[in-house]
Amino acid sequence: MTDTRQSVRDNARYLREVRPIDPEEIWEYVDGNPHPAVVRQVLRESVVELGIREREDGAFVPVEDEPLSVSFAGVESFPTEYGELLETLLVDEYGVGWPDGDSGERLRETVREMKAEYFAGSSVEYDEETRLAYALYHLPDNYAVVQYVCSRLADADLLSTRLRVLDVGAGVGGPMLGVHDLLPEDALVEYHAVEPSAAGDVFETFAEETRTGFETTLHRDSAEAFTPPGEFDIVLFANVLSELDDPAAVAGRYMKSVALDGSLVGIAPADRETAIGLRETERALERDGAGVWGPQVRLWDGYRPEDRGWSFDVSPDLDTPAFQRALDSAAGSEGEFVNVDVQYAFSVLRHDDERMVDLSLDTDRFARFADSERHVSNRIDCVALKLSRDLSDGGNPLFKLSDGSERTDHYAVLTRASTLNADLSRATYGDPLVVENALLLWNDDEDAYNLVVDDETIVDRVG
Question: For residue 83, with 0-12 CB atoms within 10 Å meaning exposed, 13-18 middle and 19 or more buried, which class applies?
Fold first, then answer.
């Protein structure tokens, strides 16, 4: 059968450049003259390797390497079929009453321990029980976040119909499932995952649910020890950099495996330490020559930010999955074991000059944030990215701004809303804004600059 498979592939490699490959026609040219159904099955199993797809008429044709188009309107819920598969794993491990009794309490206690270790800055060790507790608590938000980030790359035409993805620290498979469901069915994906722990067992279970054309390979190595096989269009670090002893060194080594037109994508939770840590890793790689695509775009040539870098996006909460509800309600809890928040920091680095926002600034008109000290108590015009949702706690709306040159944090404070400044509130994360006639003040309490946006201020989204 091995010789037959190779003969089918050899014939397909030749014919793909000549005409559509029809199993009903080529079987007689294959060693051993296998049945056309066998030829078709081999071709289906080899679509990623051969770069082909099956048409409705049953023939196989080449997939052109061109920008990928995705249809993405957000994530409302974790797919039921994946949730049912997770519950099957839980039933296999603990029985049908897994949320109750001793098993339920052990799972809840494991979740509590994971939270405590996380906030203490300790790495989570995945054993047989931890892997399922982690999946219960984190699988849905990991699934959603990677789609919000990667859809930005697709919108910028930075993903192609043929992709090689390397997922470093793949965990139980949330990012893998998210990428799988984000991409259209005609995309061909070679997905390599690096995960040495017991979490890889759960990953393999979910990987079996992927479609034809989405080919997964799990490598049971640590991030530090793994040697990437070739170059990749996406090298993904999802919620793993903060667990490494030297994240900049590890990410820097993997940057060498990013294709010339590829991206290294870092994702971290929104809390202060991990989000700032992600930005520190980004800046270390930039010093070594990588280019920052976003979100903190360097709008001014020759300037780099030196602020804390605590910036994160917030997307709508997910519907509560049935398995989280079951674990929570069995203990009479009120949401302790429900995790549907979608809040995350991200960073995208590349070898080229592509940027999430590409503007040419009028140096005579706009003030740089690097020069804010000289403009305190004056009204200024500036261009900046909106890098937060409303951060206020019931007071005046507050938004983080960045132009990539700042030495310390800058915030826009909306004191008087008007039709002229409405874009400040309406703009989404990463949108570029032109701000005219804002009063610049220094905030001693926060060690930050405040741009006061009032009824004399004009704010416009750019492009």
Answer: middle
